[in-house]
Amino acid sequence: MSQENVEMLRRANEPLQDVDVAPAIRAGLAGDADAIPPDLAAALAAWMTLFHPDVEIDTSRVDMPGFGVFRGFEGILKLFARWIEEWDHYSWTHSNFSDAGDHVILDAEIHATGTSSGVEVVWNLSQTFTFREGKVIRWCVFKDRASALAATEDAVARVAGLLEQDARADS
Question: What pLDDT, in 10s, does the model give residues 71-91?
């Protein structure tokens, strides 16, 4: 199932690669769906279907003011509103998709242009997506791949420990 998760995430992200999503997100948040090009609206809608309604989005590890833990579809919208608040243009390229059991790890290169400064910036970060029954139940953003890998390894070790405890309790 985990390779299926990688492919599902890759397919959903593909139409959004290198696309300036800031204007579409602003239009969507303002309730102006007609201002979003149909192909971009379809790509964003398909991407949203990846998520469980109770998804947890954890951006606390990227050390940016106003970011933290968000929940559910409303949380995704709040995150998007904060993410594009300071950017006229905002796009990403995802790469290095890795299967880690129930988790998918990927790297993102972000390209953005500051609203007030006009400065173009590029930065890299990593993300983990945790799947359960074909839906993302947790999406975490990390400042680098090493942090994402360490957090994923910790989560896998905790689950393995719980499974071992359950097996002993059943014996």
Answer: 999 999 999 888 888 899 999
State the first-to-last Cα distance of the chain, in angstroms, to the nearest integer.
28
- Cβ-contact 91, 19 below 8 angstroms: yes
Per the listing, tokens 């139940």 go with 137
- Cα distances from 158 to residues 1, 64, 97, 153, 165, in angstroms, run 20, 28, 23, 9, 11
pLDDT at 14 over 50: yes
Question: Quick check: 86 and 110 in contact, CB under 8 A?
Answer: no
* pTM for this predicted structure: 0.86
> Domain spans of the chain?
2-170
On whether the 2-170 domain is CATH 3.40.50.300, my answer is no
